[in-house]
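So, can you check?
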Amino acid sequence: MKIEQTSVTRRNAAAVKKAVIEAAGRLDNELDWSAVTVVDSSAVAVLLAWIRREQTYGLSPKVYSVPEKMVSLARLYGTYDLVKPYLAER
């Protein structure tokens, strides 16, 4: 699934989370962040929720084009090691 929003922040994180969780339910194991340019810690929470859901379906999550600020936030909050195994390049 490609996230079409240009920002994922507390203002729209619930809607984005709902969409990516639904995509996981359709067994879509790819999440593309290439359109996203603005993030806050909510984006990290969305990504972690999606990874957990993917794992419950036995899928191998692949995450593309994560904004650098999101990587920095994940490092700050100590969650980068949870995300790192799923970061992929196209």
